[in-house]
Amino acid sequence: MIYASTKLNESTDAKVFVDSTGRRKRILMLSGIAAAAGALLYIGVIVSSFVQAPSAELTTRGTVVSTSPSATRGGHR
Predict the structure, then answer these.
(1) Average pLDDT, consecutive stretches of 10 residues, N- to C-terminus, the chain (77 residues)
(2) Where are the alpha helices (DSSP H) in 4-77?
(3) d(CA 12, CA 23)
(4) Is the dihedral of CA 36, 40, 43, 49 positive or negative?
(5) 16: which of 6, 34, 60, 70 is 20 to 30 A away, CA to CA?
(6) How many C-beta atoms surround the C-beta of residue 5 within 10 A?
(7) Nearest CA to 68 among 59, 77, 60?
(8) How far apart are the first and last CA of the chain?
(9) What CA–CA distance (Å, rounded) separates 47 from 34?
(10) Could you tell me the pTM of the whole model?
């Protein structure tokens, strides 16, 4: 069984955890900045791939070239 630990005389405005050093805030801020930098780098890679795509001479239709001997001799398909 799971019991909820509640106190009837506990005030509702009491702080449960106080970080007076600011270490938790600093860690969260640095991890947020790192995640944002990673996201910006990823977006930059995606944008650069879209910009370079027209110069890559990509075709929209695929061409199939058969190199099997039966295809060149008029074999069955």
Answers:
(1) 57 72 92 98 92 64 68 54
(2) 23-52, 69-72
(3) 25
(4) negative
(5) 34
(6) 4
(7) 77
(8) 70
(9) 20
(10) 0.48
